[in-house]
Amino acid sequence: MFTLLRLLKIIVVALRYRLDELVLSGIKHPIAYTLLRIVRFGRPPKTPRGVRLRLALESLGPIFVKFGQVLSTRRDLIPLDVAIELALLQDRVPPFPSDQAAAGIEAALGASPHTLFKHFEVDPVASASIAQVHFAVLHDGREVAVKVLRPGMRDIIEKDLALMRVLAVLIERLAADGRRLKPRQVVAEFDNYLHDELDLIREASNCSQLRRNFSPETGREHLLMVPEVVWEYCATTVFTMERMSGIPVSQIERLRAANIDTKELGRAGVEIFFTQVFTDGFFHADMHPGNIFVSDRPETLGRYIALDFGIVGSLSEFDKNYLAQNFLAFFRRDYHRVAQLHIESGWVPPNTREEELEGAVRAVCEPYFDRPLSEISLGQVLLRLFQTSRRFNVEIQPQLVLLQKTLLNVEGMGRELDPNLDLWKTAKPYLEKWMHERVGLAGLRKQLDKEAAQWSQLLPEIPRLVHARLSRPDYGPALNLELTRLRKAQEQSNRLLMLLSVIAMAALGLAVWALTQN
Fold first, then answer.
1. What is the value of pTM for the model shown?
2. Could you tell me which residue ranges the Protein kinase domain spans (predicted)?
């Protein structure tokens, strides 16, 4: 019932904001053109299409807001006016009343915010789809940001996810590519990430881990700044962290006015992405411009600042190794190796012809190389690869959905900072160094150091285990004799069963014949 009501609301909202006209205007087909003329008859929309789409997404709730946030970074895939309007979803989602925020803090931490903090700003500084943020000052003078979960979010998300599950089942059963796309598994992954985002203790732990990955001990502190978690003021619905200040990465003119090199910033963004993915296997997976700032303080000028850690991704060693080899093969234009990797990983059926898959990948990717980022649309490349993959029954891997989304966000930000940034040339040396460290002598030494603690316990036991094994009586002949006896007994049982089956069939036939004679 809830799913049906939610679907009806979506239809009502779509009609209210004239999204039918928006969809039909983007389809180049005679039938769509005819339908567009019909729906426009007598009631042409007065509000710009981007505004209508933004208002509709805000009306439908957090899942749809997040969808709009991702779309806003893809200005090569959607019209510019729509992208600019959707960008407002990143920091202009209507806030909920401050008294509800104060009540939420008191329920979570056991005291009102005016008691817990020396100063608490009633008006939120930012409001997002899942939570909103208030600035405060601790009694020891530290400036902090307090993130408070929106009330009733769990029920809203459950209803939207229930609808998405129904749609996933329909897609899997009705669409030609439904089973290959694994829509139910993708929705299940999305379910996990959304519920993780509702637990602010988990977000705080994500923040703490990312801060540790870019601490001075790692030598990467010059790349990314992450706020410190104030654990004594955290709960499942409240997250208190160090207050960070900077310039939103999307405000290019302010960055240039602060004497920040945007070209270097673009290259650093690519390095941060590949470092998180391939070195740590743990990456910030919600890197839209509303969550990324740049420090304008003299001592940290030009450093990235990461915010909002509700959605993070993690990759296994197999995933990291497979992805790195794929990226390097693409950068080297080794399409034969790309085809081999797809077959070895099980993404395509094992009987797929390597030469045929190699030719298809080459036809998609070759036209895009040796161009600046302004002329390369990774989104378009992925779309063409998706269309090509239908011929080979390529299976979409749900565990990599977040990585694909993050890569698109990185590309969108890179295009804003430096239209001439060559994504391929920037990433290739880093990946080659990473692979050398993994498979070369340095990688061997690292693995030996990692396993040394285990070897110190296992090595002394080897002589005793070898002696025990060699001293054990040889049971081989006895086992072979027993297996021979069991096989003969099984054959006799099979013959007896066959004989009984024949007798039973004969008796049944005689009984039927006797009945027909009467």
1. 0.70
2. 119-459
